[in-house]
């Protein structure tokens, strides 16, 4: 059985279980976080689709906590997580097909049945472990999910090809799953503008977030090109937006936006972080 070991444990987040739990709780209670801990109970609510950042918890964790607070009291049997491929290794769109993913909080089983179903729905997907070996964009989301949701199955999708055509195809396939199941948490992993002055980053990101609010995939790609927005996970975000609008969602809500400068106090060169939710029809 394949076992995907943590690649950035001890760097992006603590490697010891108790330290990691304290770090996650500090993100929820941070002045930039939601300000309260989730109840951590399962209910019957359909989970919203989410966009969450993927930097080190020190920087983006409080913003990510706003996204994961939305899963409290939801029914989550499987999480489909989409992240960009930062390393350029592997296939254009890769699903990790079977086994488990390990974090300091325990092992998460892959939903192999759903992974195979997606690969049958569309040939845009490859079944490939190598693409995921070092990639952090999906990994950093998992301890937050484990903390809030508890036990669940995972379908990790890593996107090296982030073209609009590919994102649309990925979104179409995921929409087929969402039409039949209301117990799937759909999450796109992305940071926003990278390494620009705070005011410029906020200005650029506000343009991208306005397109995201209206689920405007085409407009998002146009804005990224026109305004040179260095958002790293635009493909996963576009796929999630398209899947949501295909099943009847109409708009997204930006829960929180901040930059690394809001944490470090250095506003000369920042990275932007956004937490977004998309309510799905019951």
Structural features, described:
The structure is a single chain. The longest helix has 17 residues, at 164-180. The protein has one domain (3-278): LigB-like (Protocatechuate 4,5-dioxygenase, Chain B, 3-Layer(aba) Sandwich). Strands 2, 3, 4, 7, 8, 9, 10, 11 and 12 form a nine-stranded mixed sheet that branches. It is 37% helix and 21% strand. It contains nine helices and twelve strands. It has helices at residues 17-29, 57-68, 112-121, 142-149, 164-180, 198-213, 217-227, 234-246, 260-264; strands at residues 3-4, 49-52, 78-84, 93-95, 100-103, 106-109, 126-127, 153-159, 184-189, 194-196, 253-259, 270-278. It is α/β, with parallel strands linked by helices and 282 residues long.
Outline:
The protein is an alpha/beta fold and 282 residues long. It is built from 9 helices and 12 strands.
SSE topology:
Elements: E1 3-4, H1 17-29, E2 49-52, H2 57-68, E3 78-84, E4 93-95, E5 100-103, E6 106-109, H3 112-121, E7 126-127, H4 142-149, E8 153-159, H5 164-180, E9 184-189, E10 194-196, H6 198-213, H7 217-227, H8 234-246, E11 253-259, H9 260-264, E12 270-278
Parallel strand pairs: 1-5, 2-9, 3-8, 3-9, 4-7
Antiparallel strand pairs: 2-12, 4-8, 5-6, 10-12, 11-12
């Amino acid at each position: 059985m394949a076992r995907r070991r943590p690649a950035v444990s001890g760097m992006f987040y603590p490697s010891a279980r108790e330290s990691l739990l304290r770090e996650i709780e500090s993100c929820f209670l941070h002045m930039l976080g939601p300000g309260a801990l989730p109840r951590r109970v399962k209910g019957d609510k359909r989970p919203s689709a989410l966009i969450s950042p993927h930097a080190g918890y020190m920087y983006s964790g409080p913003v990510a906590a706003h996204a994961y607070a939305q899963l409290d009291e939801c029914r989550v049997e499987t999480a489909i997580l989409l992240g960009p491929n930062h390393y350029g290794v592997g296939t254009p769109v890769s699903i990790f097909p079977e086994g488990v993913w390990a974090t300091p909080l325990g092992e998460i089983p892959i939903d192999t049945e759903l992974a195979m179903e997606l690969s049958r729905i569309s040939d845009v997907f490859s079944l490939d472990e190598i693409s995921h070996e070092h990639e952090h964009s999906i990994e950093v989301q998992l301890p937050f999910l484990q903390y809030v949701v508890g036990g669940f199955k995972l379908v990790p999708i890593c996107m090296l090809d982030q073209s609009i055509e590919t994102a649309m195809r990925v979104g179409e396939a995921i929409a087929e799953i969402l039409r039949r199941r209301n117990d799937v948490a759909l999450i796109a992993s992305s940071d926003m503008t990278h390494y620009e002055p705070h005011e410029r980053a906020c200005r650029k990101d506000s343009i991208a977030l306005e397109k995201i609010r209206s689920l405007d995939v085409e407009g998002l790609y146009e804005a990224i090109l026109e305004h040179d927005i260095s958002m790293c996970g635009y493909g996963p975000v576009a796929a999630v937006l398209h899947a949501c609008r295909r099943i009847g969602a109409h708009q997204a809500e930006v829960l929180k936006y901040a930059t690394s400068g809001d944490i470090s106090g250095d506003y000369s060169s920042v990275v932007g972080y956004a937490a977004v939710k998309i309510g799905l029809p019951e």
